[in-house]
Amino acid sequence: MKKVLITAMLAVWMFLSSCSMTGNNSGNNDGTTSQNPQGSQVSLKLAVKAESLSRSISSELYAVTKMDIIIKDESGTNELATAQWVKDGGVDEFEFILETPGNYKLHLVHYYIDGEGVENSTPEGPYAFSLVPGYITVLSVTPGAVVIEVNGEEQDPLQPLSISAFIPDEESALQQGDAVWIDILINDVDGLADLGNWTLKSGYYKYTNLQMSASDIENWSLSNGQTIRCHADEYTGETDTVITDNNSDLWDYKTTNNYEISEKYGIIWLESEAGDIIDLVAYNTAKNTSDYWLSADPLTTIETAVTNELWPDATLAGAFDLEDITVTSGAGLKEGIIDGNSKDDWTALTNFSGDLISEIQGAAHTSPKLGDSVNNVQGIITQVLAKGFYLQSITPDDDPATSEGIYVYMGTTHSYSIGDHVAVSGTVYEYFPGGTDSGNLSITQISSPSVEVISSGNDLPEATIIGIAGRTPPGKVICDDSLAEFDPENDGLDFYESLEGMLVQVNQALVVGPTKLYTSSKDYEIAIVPDNGDNVSVKTIRDGMLLQSDDYNPEIIILNGDYTDESDMPLANNGAVFTEITGIIGYSYEYYKLYAIDPLTSSTTALIKEVTTLESDSTHLTIGCYNVQNLSAVSDSEQINGIAQDIFNNLNSPDIVGLVEIMDNNGPEVDDGTVDAAATYQAIIDAIVAAGGPVYEFRDIAPRNNSDGGWGGGNIRCGFIFNPANVSFIDRAGGTATAATTVSDLGSGEAEISFSPGRIDPTNAAFDDSRKPVVGEFHFDGEKIYVIVNHFNSKGGDDSLYGSQQPPVLASETQRNLQAQVVNGFVQDILDIESDANIVVLGDLNDFQFSQPLTTLKGSVLTNLVETLPLNEQYTYIYKGNSQVLDHILVSNHITTHLCPSLDIVHINSEYHVNNRFSDHDPLVLRINCK
After folding, report:
1. From CA 263, how far away is CA 246, in angstroms rounded?
2. DSSP character at residue 541
3. Helix (H, G, I), strand (E, B), or coil: what is residue 290?
4. Which residue from 424, 462, 535, 909 could staple onto 377, CB 3.0 to 4.6 Å apart?
């Protein structure tokens, strides 16, 4: 729908916006100032006529039936004054009385009858405005529509299209270092009505390098009565440009440029969308004699020969007649008309502006200027790397979809510093980390640059807050359109791209993925979410981010940094909080990342390692499942003893433990053909005894050398340890690395497996370069239990959540699905003979409870006990901040219906940083009642 066209609303809004623009003063018709002593009562009355209210919908007019006008305080919660106009209701005048200076907000609600006779309402606003002590400022669009009263006495309103602003005493302002304002009033531009939109630009000359810098502000339509206000500060070099457009759209544009103006020369000009200059003003706060007004014939583009000795290399593309613009005030402003022939030694002024970072980035993952040369790209350096730096614009646009930051790749070491204001020229390039075939997104950068330092030691641009107080990331979707549309409001992938290269701030950053070290590259990662995670959908029981089938948590931010040793690196467990993190949004290794620019200190977290409440006894059997992360006999004794303590203290010494990632005796460092793991098992068994636990035995089928995937030379495999005092292992010899265990029918509804321990279909292509399932038969309290330990194919090779392939292709899932089919088929073979068989399938299945491989594995014969837990407890592993289930225990239907199974995921590893855990997976414990 188009905007409501309401004369009275324009009057109100222009009253408010003019208050804001001129700051503290108003001019009457004769140019005098109407002062409103602080505390006096200001009454604004509006006469409203029915014919002034209409709504345009699909080119048809519908009458507005009523309109609510509400003034609220700055918070927007407390109503201070309300009124309503009702059509044909006799109410044709509103009155608002404000006695207290301050900040206010105007809300409008328009009611109208649509084409189907249904009443609709459209809210507008809130529009912020200020009632400034000491002055009132009013701009009327419709003569006679606004009446102003001060303490009951009617004041003369300003006439349409006229404004006069308060200018401080020039000399005192310069002496005190206060702002010096230049106001330019456009009086007569009727001849320009058909010329379309125009752009205000402002810039300066720096005497030392004779360069011009300029800032584009949004397009606006030229009309009589528009005032251009520019501010130059004598001491700080800050330039502030404000446009107030009194035409149709009621916008207030403003930009602030922190320039160091070496010689305090300023330029203000208007130019068309095509780049033609309307008019131009030169000014100098030092009041030198070299201040000129430059113009040419109206509506022409000419080469005007103008120069002076300070600007020998400048050029001017043309200007409009000075008579179209009146300068009402300004510090050191001089006027002069140059006809193009009066100064032979002057050169034309041109090329004032440079390329903007937002235009280079564009609202896309690939720059619209890819391969183009860009010039005079200005900004402040926010972060310095060995071979480049991040640059952020000092003239941002109003579009949050276009990033204001960019990486400048020098290709070599450099001496530029954070806080440098630089002008960069170079070529726009899209860099793919790892190459174009890596699956990574690209990083927009300027390459082969030339860099000029304009000033140093500047404050950094204001950081964009990610979170409730700023830009809130999407809550569920990473990408739902295959990168066909750029939608940062709804797609996490696009949201972070819109911040690429920018300075951001994250408040109350909750750690949802503990510190992870990359020893080869000497960097670390920590997964965080803003605002203590208060804005997320589902947290785990211990303040993590739960991964779900329809929610991959785009709120998660990967904090990335370098370290020399662990002393200069934040080691954080889940639940820790960083009060404030400021850094740059970058991209590497298939994820957007936050590169902190300041040292980080997190709060301590009292994250207690869990102890299961499930215990075994004479009628209750307990079975554990534990991925022990590449454990071998030569592993660090701290890991061996730590795993033993976990099994004894935290898992309550289960009767049977299915172990995953057991390595051969000499581990991965020696690849000599050794596959036996007896020493590895014995090391863990001895450590459990030393911790106070029972004397376990083990069963194992050694793989062929380097045939089961994993770390070369390590020969990881699945196996068992069990407590012979509580449970019996039924040994049937003959199991080898390649021999397949079969199921025989003994009659009377009883099955028997050929090998125990034995491998399940180990030569099936589904298990190529992957661990083979191992099955064993146990007896406990008169019950026979088949236990199958698995370690399915890893997720290596899958596309990243934040990669160039959307949606991600899960290439590894195909093999896991085939593996699930084989194991499900083996379970079915047993149940076809022994329908009430007790079968436990467990292990690291490398996939989620809602995935296709797990659905295939369950079929109709198994129940995944993970799914019986509360949703916020369903996780055994954390990857990039996503708490997820990779380790599972499934049971046959007889166990589900007759043996009262209970499952506990014991959270002792996944939420802890590398120095505070012994594996990266949480173990599980199953208890069944065999009474």
Report:
1. 34
2. T
3. coil
4. 424
- Contact predicate 29/156, CB 8 Å: yes
Q: Cα dist. 725→617, 721, 733, 781 in Å?
A: 11, 12, 22, 12
Which has the closest alpha carbon to 823: 843, 851, 837?
A: 843
DSSP annotation of 394 reads S
Instruction: Select from 774, 769, 800 the least CA-distant residue to 788.
Output: 774
Q: Quick check: 50 and 88 in contact, CB under 8 A?
A: yes
Mean pLDDT along residues 563-572: 78
What is the DSSP-derived secondary structure letter of residue 647? I
Q: Report which of residues 186 and 559 the model is more confident about.
A: 559
Q: Which of 362-376, 526-540, 564-578, 742-756 has the lowest mean pLDDT?
A: 564-578
Q: 491 with 556: CB under 8 angstroms?
A: no
3-state secondary structure string, 106-148?
EEEEEEEECCCCCEEEEEEEEEEEEECCEECCCCCCCCCCEEE
Strand (E) positions, 825-899?
838-844, 862-864, 877-879, 882-884, 887-892
Report the amino acid identity of residue 243.
Answer: I
Beta bridge partners of 294: 280
Among candidates 173, 71, 58, which has minimal Cα distance to 128? 71
Q: What is the mean pLDDT of residues 255-283?
A: 37
Mode of pairing for the β-strands spanning 656-662 and 717-722: antiparallel
**Cβ(653)–Cβ(925) under 8 Å?**
no
Quote the DSSP letter at residue 692.
T
pTM above 0.70, yes or no: no
The two tokens of residue 664 are: 């051969």
Report phi then psi at 851, rounded to 5.
-80, 165
Segments in 701-751 forming alpha helices (H): none
The single-letter DSSP state of residue 646 is I
Q: Which residues pair with 756 in a beta bridge?
A: 732
Residue 175 predicted with pLDDT over 70:
no
| Other Cβ atoms closer than 10 A to 557 | 27
Q: Which helix (H) or strand (E) holds 854?
A: helix 852-858
**637-645 and 678-691 are packed helices; what angle lies between their axes, rounded to 10 degrees?**
60
The CA distance from 922 to 931, in Å, is: 29
Closest CA to 903 of 921, 922, 883, 888: 888
For the segment 666-679, the average pLDDT, to the nearest whole number, is 94
Where does 709-861 show beta strands of DSSP type E?
Answer: 717-722, 728-730, 743-747, 750-753, 758-759, 774-780, 783-791, 838-844
Residues in Cβ contact with 594 at an 8 Å cutoff, skipping those fewer than 6 apart: 504, 506, 528, 557, 558, 559, 560, 581, 583, 584, 585, 586
CA neighbor of 650 nearest in space, from 464, 919, 877, 872:
919
Q: State the pLDDT confidence band at 842, using cuts at 50, 70 and 90.
A: very high
Start-to-end CA distance of the chain, whole Å, equals 72
The three-state secondary structure class of 873 is helix
Q: Average pLDDT of the chain?
A: 74
Q: Which residues, 6 or more positions from 679, have their beta carbon under 8 angstroms from its beta carbon?
A: 633, 665
Instruction: For residue range 60-119, list pLDDT tens digits in order.
Output: 344 567 777 777 877 777 887 777 766 655 445 555 666 565 666 767 777 777 666 677
Contact 911, 574 (CB under 8 A): yes
Distance between CA 760 and CA 339 in Å, rounded?
A: 95
Reported as half-sphere exposure (CB side, CA atoms, 13 A), residue 643 has a value of 31
pLDDT at 518: 82
